[in-house]
Amino acid sequence: MDSTQLAIVALAVGAVIGGGLAALVLLALRTRDRARVEASLELPDGTRAVLQGMDEAAVVVDASLQVLAASAPAELFDMHEGSSLPGEELRAVVRAARRAARPESATLRLRRGVEQRLVTARASVITPRLTLIVIRDITEHERVEQMRRDFVSNTSHELKTPVGAITLLAEAIDSAADDPDQVRRFAARLSAEASRLGQLTSRIMNLSRLQSADDLTELRDVSVDEVVAAAIESQSIAADAAGIAIVRGGARGAYVRGDVQVLTEAIGNLVANAVAYSPPGAQVGVGVKADDRVVEIAVTDRGIGIPEGDQERVFERFYRADQARSRRTGGTGLGLSIVKHAVQRHGGEVELWSRPGRGSTFTVRLSVVEPPENTLVKGSRRTKPKKQKNKSKPKAARDVAPTKGDPS
Hints:
Blueprint lengths: L2 H37 L7 H6 L4 E5 L5 E4 L17 H13 L3 E9 L2 E13 L2 E8 L1 H37 L4 H32 L8 E4 H11 L1 H7 L2 E6 L4 E4 L1 H17 L6 E8 L3 E8 L6 H4 L11 H7 L5 H11 L3 E7 L3 E11 L27 E4 L8
Parallel strand pairs: 7-9, 7-13
Antiparallel strand pairs: 1-2, 1-5, 3-4, 4-5, 6-8, 8-12, 9-10, 10-12, 11-12
Helix pairs in contact: 4-5, 5-11, 6-8, 8-11
């Protein structure tokens, strides 16, 4: 091998050795940099930007559980940069994730302001010293799920009662076929139970329709006077039978945008409740107050009233403040729930005032609209055609001047 060839071989060997050394040096530098990053408390680039773009509460904490970065929703749970991670249960989730070196999740309760919220917390280790925690508020989801389970359970229970009664009465009629008086008595009870079953089924369907995502389809400008008159008329027979007078007072000529059938049923349910829970000889008041923005329809009774502890729940499906009385009056426990959802579907609200022994007032508030062209509110230039007096006006309903102040 001549000198030229030896030189080429030497250069090749040197290049190989040099390249290997260079690769080893580069690997060592990268390992050192990675170890330095992992050992530091510096956040990876873009971490804060990612957190600020999140709709859920999320924070990054260090090994001592100090918050280094937080999303905006996390501040509602009192998690701010520089603060200590709140809640021992949440801290335990982080420690478990760090020990296992894998994401850990748990369902727990965290304080948000003055209330406790049900949340799911997931902790993920992003470096040996940094942990990401994502918190999802599931309070409303759990509430809706519980309502769904209660609805299915309560509906099944409520339907079993009249169905079972109808079955027994049918058997009783068959057994008493030779006794006309007994047959008539059982037949009357059978008819009552069938009516109750039909009413319950109808109300369940109405409530389901009101709770569906579909918009109301029969919308038009609705006369509040028409709604109130129809609601009172629907309860006039029950009121006469109980010796209760329904008194109508307040403003006239107000209009709202809505479904007349749905609104009439809602106000009719309030009147029916007032009649059912009033003593014989009492009065039920239906008053209307309106301004240029809102119309209020208040139904007042002087009945037994509702205890304060039950007032938050009376609008729930199948909930009855007085179970025994509701059974006697044939109540389904769905009337007030229908009222709430009907009013909400019209963009309004319903409010309850009640005191045990002094009675209750349910007030429905809806947005007013301009009257149609061929009608007129008192004081405007348009005139409203005169109507013939309604000679068939129910005896249980009378007009009186509106009263002011609370129903007490």
